[in-house]
Each structure stands twice: as C-alpha cells, then as structure tokens.
Write a structure and sequence with these properties.
The protein has 89 residues and is mainly alpha-helical. It has one domain. 71% of the residues lie in helices and 0% in strands. The chain has three helices and no strands. The longest helix is centred in the middle third of the chain and has 34 residues, at 31-64. The chain is elongated, with a radius of gyration of 24 Å. The termini are far apart.
C-alpha cells in the first residue's frame, strides 16, 4: 500500500456543508473519508466508461467487417432460451 499524500482543496460552500453534515451525523469519521469514497466512485465510473467505449469501438469494427447478426434471429434465440429456462422450473 502506498503512503498517503496530503492535499489541500477548496470547495464551494454547499459541498463543504454537505461533507461536514455527513461527518456530524456520524456517517463518516472524517471529511477525507467522504472525499476518498467519492473518488473511488469516480474512478469506477471512469473504468466502466472506458469499457463501454471499448465495446462500442469493437461493435463498430464488427459491423464494418460484416460480423453482425439479424435482430430477428437474435430475438428468436433469446425467446427459445427463455422458454427453455422457464420450463425447467
């Protein structure tokens, strides 16, 4: 684990009040916990967006290369799969 690095940030009053309110309610032990949680969420969001972008690029490349399926065929396959799985119960 890397050592912590101390940063100083300036926030709008509304954000600072929001953070301080959560700490005063006992939901967090310190302001920094809230900032860390928010950053973890942001990092996860960025990771997911990168995965989505990669998938879109791959989908476009597949379509341009002719690697596509007819939507009616896909619906039929899904319907059959759903019916088979549903009837197992």
């Amino acid at each position: 684990m890397q050592p912590d690095e101390e940063l100083s940030i300036t926030l709008p009053v509304e954000m600072a009040n929001f953070i301080q309110g959560k700490v005063s309610l006992g939901l967090y032990g310190a302001n920094s916990e809230i900032i860390r949680e928010a950053l973890r969420g942001w990092i996860e969001r960025e990771r997911r967006l990168e995965m989505l972008d990669t998938g879109i690029v791959q989908g476009i490349a597949d379509a341009e290369a002719g690697r596509v399926q007819d939507i009616d065929e896909i619906h039929a396959q899904l319907r059959e799969q759903f019916t088979t799985n549903y009837n197992q119960f």
